[in-house]
Amino acid sequence: MAILMRLFRAGAPAWLALWAGALSAAPLRVGVTLHPYYSFAANIVGDRAEIVPLIDAGNNPHNYTPQPDDMKRVMSMDVLIVNGIGHDEWAFAIVEAAGRKDELPLIYANDGVSLIPIAADEGQAKVVNPHTFVSTTAAIQQVYTIAKALGEIDAANADYYRDNARAYAASIRRLKAEFAAELADVDAASFRCATMHGAYGYLMQEFGLQVVAVIEPRHGVEPTARQLADTIEKIKAADVNVLFAEKYFASKLADTIKEATGVEMYSFSHMSDGEYTPDLFEREMRANLATLARAMRAAAASR
Amino acid sequence: MSAQVEIVTPASGRFETWALASVATAILVSAGVGVDVRQVEEGEPRLFDWQISAFYDLNPTDQAVYNAVLAASEELWWIHGDILTFGSEEERADPWPTVAQLDAEYLMPPFTRDMAWSQQGSVRWERIASFSFEGSTVYFGSGGQAAEQSAYLLMLSHVHKGASYANGATIWVHEDPNVAAPDTVVRDSLILNGWKEVVPYSGAMEVERLKGA
Question: Whose CB has fewer CB within 10 Å in chain A, the N or C terminal residue?
């Protein structure tokens, strides 16, 4: 027994070194709050880190209530990627409840993004639009911010992350270029749109299009009867011909407005539903751009 | 026996009313003074008079072009680094991509001539190599045809070469979309000639406002 103990003691430093090595070689566990951040992070880290969604798929991030399992997940993360400008406030409550407020590194994806106000807020106080992830240009900026921050945490893979980020950005740009080319011959002057939700300002801006009216006065807040009547008047006065509703959030309001104004209705994806997958962002963006193309062609044909 | 008459003053709340009113007034006045003294000004970020806010001051077209230029500036530095590292000797002598490359090869807004480019006024972009100094360069956009559109200047400057821009990129606008390219990009000269530096309202600023971080 004594011999065994002596052998163990003699080998202890080597065992500890091996154990420490195994720990340090463990892949980074990168937490994400929203579906697009899962796609961004997965495309940046490839197989050199593990992506952990903070909340289960199928929840609505607009009115999410933290659950006990969220705290378990946050305990296992090395870093958490957040929107931080109003779309995932519940994440901060979870981090605080888990006691990791002062020690879990947070990557604020929007740090370098130049924010825009919610569209069609003329005459009112300008309110920041937090939907930077429903876009291509602002999405690419967030991909770069995330890649740089991950490279600082995991310096050994910094170049790998940067190269992947650039390749992913190029892929997003090609996607946008594909639809921009398809729409090159469409007369955009006849396209005048309103949206149910303020989520699409960045996307429209990238195509040089303006949103005339946003139906919900604030995020997830249904308009009062007075506000709805005013919006309907605004839609009629501005000759709006297209209304974009939410793909996964049914609303009777959209039907009411369609009935009152005669606008054509289409649905955009808010990119916050379904399973977390690396290709979700590009798949949903492709669907949104196809919808935009259909709407623009229909608007041009109707004039 | 004469009857004594005593006049009894009816109970009145007059004194209490005055006392209460005085105390209430004192509380209101002291609270007002306190609020006035302690209030923290919040709202639009403070800017110099030669700066404007991308969030508050730019019209939608300028805002769209500005946001595209700001996003491009990050990648322009990376392309610049690639050319310096992997480029031929000839490429390293002029280590910034041309506008033609940004259009066709990189599909990079706002330089690429796609639908957004035409919707946003069909701005003519050029790289002004004559301003290049010690590795820095300038992209100049003019001739935009959208209503109330500006001219644009993207300056990419090496921080370690003594330039004053911590992020290595500054973006300026001029209210005349057809203004001639500036003769120099020295800051004071740009200011004197009507250029305004655009300051973003970034996600970092919004996080600071929301969380005081």
Answer: N
* Cα A128 to the center of its chain, rounded Å: 15
Pick one of 2.40.30.110, 2.130.10.10, 3.40.50.1980, 3.20.14.10 as the CATH number of A185-301. Answer: 3.40.50.1980
A residues 106-135 closer than 8 Å to B (CB) = 108-117, 126, 128, 132
Alpha helix positions (H), A183-267: 201-206, 225-237, 252-261
Structure confidence by residue, pLDDT tens digits, A261-276 = 888 889 999 998 889 9
Residue B96's CB is within 10 A of a number of other CB atoms, namely 22
Taking an 8 Å cut-off on Cβ atoms, the answer to whether A188 and B75 are in contact is: no
Return the closest-CA partner of residue A138 out of A199, A185, A217.
A199
Rounded-to-integer distance, Cα B59 and Cα A208, Å: 12
Q: What are the tokens at A224?
A: 């009062």
Instruction: Measure the CA–CA gap between A292 and A136, rounded to whole angstroms.
Output: 14
- Higher per-residue pLDDT: A250 or B170: B170
DSSP for residue B88: -
* ipTM summary value: 0.78
The model's pTM: 0.81
What pLDDT does residue A118 have?
83
Give the separation between CA A35 and CA A278, rounded to whole angstroms: 9
Interface check for A63 against chain B (CB to CB < 8 A): the answer is no
- Whether the Cβ atoms of residue A145 and residue A214 lie closer than 8 Å to each other: no
Closest CA in chain A for residue B106: A170
Q: What pairs with residue A53 in β-bridges?
A: A32
Question: How many Cβ contacts (< 8 angstroms) between chains A and B?
Answer: 116
Q: How far apart are CA A32 and CA A78, in angstroms?
A: 11
Architecture of domain A2-177: 3-Layer(aba) Sandwich (3.40)
Which residues of chain A are within 8 Å of residue B203 when distances are taken between CB atoms?
84-85, 108-113, 115, 132
Domain ranges of chain A: 2-177, 185-301
Q: Which of residues 66-95 of A touch B (CB under 8 A)?
A: 84-86, 92
Contact A173 B68 (CB under 8 A): no
The two structure tokens encoding residue B45: 């970020």
Number of H helices, E strands in chain A: 10, 8
Our CA-based measurement puts residue A111 at a distance from the nearest CA of chain B, in whole angstroms, of: 4
Query: What is the per-residue pLDDT across A165-191, written as a single tens digit (0 to 9) for each?
Result: 999 999 999 999 999 888 888 888 888
